[in-house]
Amino acid sequence: MIVAIGRELGSGGRDVGERLAQAMHAELLDNQIVDLVAARIGAPLAYVRARDEHVESFVDRLFRVITAAYPESYGPDGLPDWSEERLVQLTESIIQERAHGEPLVVIGRGAPVLLRDRRDVFRIFVAASHEGRIARLMRRGSHSREEAMREIKKSDSARAAYMQTHYHVDWRDASNYDLVVNTDRLGIDAAADAVLHAMRVPA
Prior knowledge:
Layout: E1 2-7, H1 13-24, E2 27-29, H2 32-41, H3 45-51, H4 58-69, H5 84-98, E3 104-107, H6 111-114, E4 121-127, H7 130-140, H8 145-167, E5 179-182, H9 183-200
Parallel strand pairs: 1-3, 1-4, 2-3, 4-5
Helix pairs in contact: 1-9, 2-3, 2-5, 7-8
């Protein structure tokens, strides 16, 4: 069985994923996707991390267009393909490869849409109120309230653009998921339990 998770920053989606992976004895695939993509294309980890679930900036796109037009300026082999399209393609390949093995919990990176046609995939979205998300970020790190608000706004914008650009869906549209859980109401453990219970209900 595979659980594909969409989540809002500060909703506890990673925590829910960890509980599910433990209960299912499944691999948890989240930030290590960045490591795997970086290794496959030979890019610096920081480069891939900065573009994880982000749409390419205008400056990045302009630089890529210019270097593609003048590859001879960058050595006999030209530049490696570190484009947004290549990063997304590799991310999808890694998710699909891991989804052919043992039980898997995969967080973000378009997985709920990428794997939507598979009968062995249960797709969830982990949400929380704006205030709940701010509070969780403030508890989790050294964020001030203002910093947490900025991080949430930035993350929401990036994830919405990523899903719209590459999968042509509204990131928060409930129809893209089998279950939506609100961690304000349920908390992390009860949210994970609700997912496990729903997975056992015959389709």
